Amino acid sequence: MPLLLLVLLLGGAALEIWVAITVADAIGALPVVLLLLASSFLGGRVLGRGTVRAWRRVADASRSGERVGRSVLDAGLVVVAGVFLLLPGLVSGAVGLVLLTPPVRAVLRPLLAAAVARRMLPVVMSARGAAWTAGRRPGAPADVEGHASEAPGAEPEGPVRGVVLPAPSDDPRSDRR
User: Fold this and answer.
1) What is the pLDDT of residue 151?
2) How many CA atoms within 13 Å lie on the side-chain side of 141?
3) pLDDT tens digits for range 111-165
């Protein structure tokens, strides 16, 4: 994986240099430098303002009870677009501009959601707490705030079977040591 990352990094740098030289031959060096500066300036603006605006949409969707998945993915794509614009290079700037357009984000959103689900689902399902929650019977007593809540005569559920901790005392002096 580190070798692949190094190859992609070096290949991307070589591509950026080749494109910059080719475009500079066609339109001149000064316009290319101005394009690179404009791209970096726009990337800074997107990361500053666009990111705040995107995360505000996430917060609004969360407060209104809507599903925030779409808003989170849009905010993430806006951040990635800002980073691409901020990077020095014409290709990365073009990729950043393309990512800022809503139709492209609408196409990438389901692909990104599927990739995240494919990567995260095994992690979530293998988590110890998720297995316990999934294994608990509906309507079975639950352990709330560390107090034992098993029905009389029932086998306690949890990591240590058969061990029941004493209920906390209502006496405030019992907390002192």
Assistant:
1) 57
2) 15
3) 888 888 787 777 666 655 544 454 555 555 555 555 555 555 655 555 555 555 5
The model's pLDDT over 36-76, given as tens digits with 9 standing for 90+, comes to 999 999 999 998 888 788 778 888 888 887 777 777 888 88
Whether 32 contacts 18, CB under 8 Å: no
Q: How far apart are CA 86 and CA 38, in angstroms?
A: 9
123: amino acid identity, one letter: V
pTM for the predicted model, two decimal places: 0.63
CA–CA separation, 160 vs 163, rounded Å?
Answer: 6
Amino acid 49: pLDDT: 87
Q: How far apart are CA 20 and CA 31, in angstroms?
A: 11
Task: Judge whether 168 and 162 are in contact, CB under 8 Å.
Answer: no
Within 8 A by CB and 6+ apart from 164, the residues are: 148, 150, 156
d(CA 22, CA 27) in angstroms, rounded, equals: 9
Task: Find the distance separating the first CA and the last CA of the chain, reported in whole Å.
Answer: 54
Determine how many CB atoms are found less than 10 A away from the CB of residue 7: 10
- Helix residue ranges, H only, the chain: 2-27, 29-45, 51-64, 69-86, 90-100, 102-126, 128-135
144: tokens are 């709330």
